[in-house]
Amino acid sequence: MESHADRYEVRPGVPTVEVFRRLRTDAGLSDKSPEAVALALPNTWFGVVLHHDGEPIGMGRIIGDGGTAFQVVDICVHPAHQGAGLGRRIMAALTEELERRAPATAYVSLIADGPARHLYAKFGFADTAGHGSVGMYRTIGRR
To answer: How many domains would you assign to the chain?
Structure first.
């Protein structure tokens, strides 16, 4: 008998521009312009798409220079599928690839929104604030 978990599959790769935008907005993340997404996706160092019965319902990507600096981005799971350990499966696939291919001296960062910090901590990520550094960000914001 097939279990519910068997209907989920994490596949290497990135979604299409349209699926990327839908996955982000369905999960409550900000939308990105189609032009920006089309530029971004080919520059993914490693990505995964989570499928449920063949339909994409989540994703995660690693971007970076391939040697010294990496950032985990776009981790999301459709709300109807949250709470089933699927974010953990996405993070496991991403961190396994980092451990397999990234140099040992690489710096890997991410921005944790809300309670997601607890998931990321399980994969060895620690707060930077209070250790002599603090995460910062800036948006371009052209009108």
So the answer is: 1
Question: Residue 92: which H helix or E strand, with range?
Answer: helix 86-101
- Write the CA distances from 26 to 23, 57, 64, 140, integer angstroms: 5, 9, 25, 24
Domain that residue 59 falls in: 4-121
pTM comes to 0.90
Residue 135 inside a domain? The answer is no
Cα(143)–Cα(127) distance, integer angstroms: 33
Render pLDDT for 127-143 as a digit per residue (tens, 0 to 9).
887 777 888 888 887 65
Which CATH number goes with the domain that contains 58?
Answer: 3.40.630.30
CA distances from 33 to 17, 20, 97 (A): 9, 11, 28
- List the 69-77 sheet strands across, edge first: 8-12, 46-52, 55-64, 69-77, 107-110
